[in-house]
Specification:
This protein is α/β, with parallel strands linked by helices and 417 residues long. It has 15 helices and 13 strands. Strand 4 and strand 5 form a beta hairpin.
Amino acid sequence: MIREIVERNLADPASVVRSAEEALGVAESDTHNYFLALDRSLPLRAELLSKSGRRGRLFGLIVAVKDNIDVEGFATTNGAPYAKSTPSRTAPAVRQLEVEGALVIGKTNMHELALGATNLNPHYGPTRNPHDPARITGGSSGGSAGAVALGIAHIALGTDTGGSVRIPAALCGVVGYKPSYGAFPLDGVRPLAPTLDHLGFFAKSVSDMAYLMEVLRGMRAEPLDRFRFAVLKGIAEVDDYVDKAFWRAVSALEKAGGERFEVPVDARRFSYARAAILLAEAAAVNWSYLKQHERSMGRDVASLLKVGASLPAPAYIKALEVQREAKSYFGSLLKKYDALATPTTAIAAPKIEEADSIAVRPKLLAFTELFNLTGLPAISVPAPAPGLPAGLQLASSDDEKLLSIALSYEAALGALK
């Protein structure tokens, strides 16, 4: 789709201005609370771009950027008024999009300090699910996922430390992709837990994501005729609605040429290690905020940072040892199988008033956090579901293979409809 939009824009540069005007109008009137800041000069910038003669491979595409990623001309809040700063430069990942002709429409709402999976922000309000505004988008990149789901932005940027791109992608019904650890620079991105932090991307389809990665990284993903994939079993209990959607997605993978295997995994030690690394590093990164602004923080964020600050050094060192074990274990699995498959989340989007429960967090994180611990590339793609969205998560040994399998799945799913 975005490839066709770019081709249309190249053939008719005036359409770039129309697209910008439409996107800004929808964003300004939207009630889902996806944006913390909008560039009202977007149509003017689109006009200047259309007249400039610069014709990049993302010419005229509208981009939304999570508000922990720097864009010159916007404040960066990191989801909290006390963390607000004014950057002097645009993050390299955003700048790369702009060089190719993309236009940043604004900065998106997020979970406070990116330390949460619900996007219930006590300072800026919750982001509301595009399929049911009474429900959450998931987080911490919920505004970016929602902006793509509603069609305000063609693509969006987020960050992912435990699932913060893939979780809202699953709950909002879009594609959320976490590339391999270190694949994109994190300069100009507010850190949370540097050992686990990834940049991530949202798009409406896998084919859109593959085109974006072709532009940004020179990847050449093509659907595969045959591949082996392992369904990981025993990680977490999944509710019936999501479970049915997941197995329908597995059937589509098999139709795409995938040979299915099932592998039991005891992920408890891996989950504990990811949590220990996250909390210890998040407390170190945000120590000054915790000391000065604890009373104005959301209860969940303050509590998690205090837990992290109290973790003894041996616990953190041990968690790093378990991380190495996890990398070795999943690396060995991916020598046998081309991809690993799980539900993205164990539940569909809960209602806003129910999402603050401590029980919700592990149901959102149980499957996604494994691939922050290992640094493997992972993607959430929509699973066939009759109502609220659900996600299929795929992980692989390298980004190109992952996107190739995801393309195969998307094509098979389309054929089943």
